[in-house]
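Table S5 (text form). Sequence records supplied for joint modeling of the two-component complex.
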Amino acid sequence: MPRVSFDDWTLALHVLAAFSYVAGVTLFWVLIVAVRRIDTPEGTLRLNGVARVGGAAVGIGAGGTIVFGIWLAFSVGNYDIWDAWILIALVLWFVAAAVGRRTGEAYLEGPKRAQELEAAGQTGPNAELLAINRTQRGLQLHVLSTIIVLLILIDMIWKPWA
Amino acid sequence: MSVLAVIRGDSLNFPLFLHVLGAMILVGGLLAGVAALATARGSERLLRLGYWSLLAVSLPGWVLMRIGAQWIATKEHWDDVPDELIPTWLTIGFVIADLGGLILLLSLILGGVGVYRMRQGKGAALLKITLVLAFIALAAYVVAVWAMSGKPD
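The corresponding structure-token record, covering 315 residues in total, follows.
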């Protein structure tokens, strides 16, 4: 069995969490592209299962990166929590979390409306639902989320002022 | 980790960025593909979405990841190092990257035939195999990420 130190385990879990986060963001890109062509309640609600997987990936990723990241900042000798690149990452993480929450809210409008339409017995194509699924606000917020996540990755690799 | 950052020259940052970004896109595409195929329950739209996630997201991610990896290996002269001196984590990373790529390619070929057959009304059995292969690739890449970041001796 290969030997891995405790700090290396923590680093591995931190990186795996980062992968989970970005995988979730990528999955939501797939859903955003897919939902732009969906105008039926059934089609919209069909994506819920995939969205739940994405939500779990982002949640686990966001939680894991912050918990294991802060642990590493205190545990690894050459790093301090007030290092510029760590502070930048923390600020970006909080901004990404806030933007991500708003993105989720924007894209939840579609399934909510789809449920209302289904309950009312309207199962056919619906122009209003299509417009909700094509939310510009949600798209812009997800672009912003993606840029912030990319900035975190750049910060983690280049480690400015380290 | 900062020791590694010191050892790692700044010239490696960009190839490393491409490598990690590509790997993240690859894993994201696999996750989306597996999620869509697994939750499809016969829905043609979701089966197609799952397949296209693998083709349009995972495959470019794999190419980007592999280009970044080879760029780093060339810059670091890993190709000139005798096999017995190559660290375990690097071997695990390379083997899984390439083996996973083959599995992904196989899943794309079978999935492509599966989507074509589905359009002809001949069922979606091949897409179930695509799901299994994509899941195996996803699990393998999780192990690779662990090995590349935890760096087992």
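Note: Residues 34 and 47 of chain A are 9 Å apart (CA to CA).
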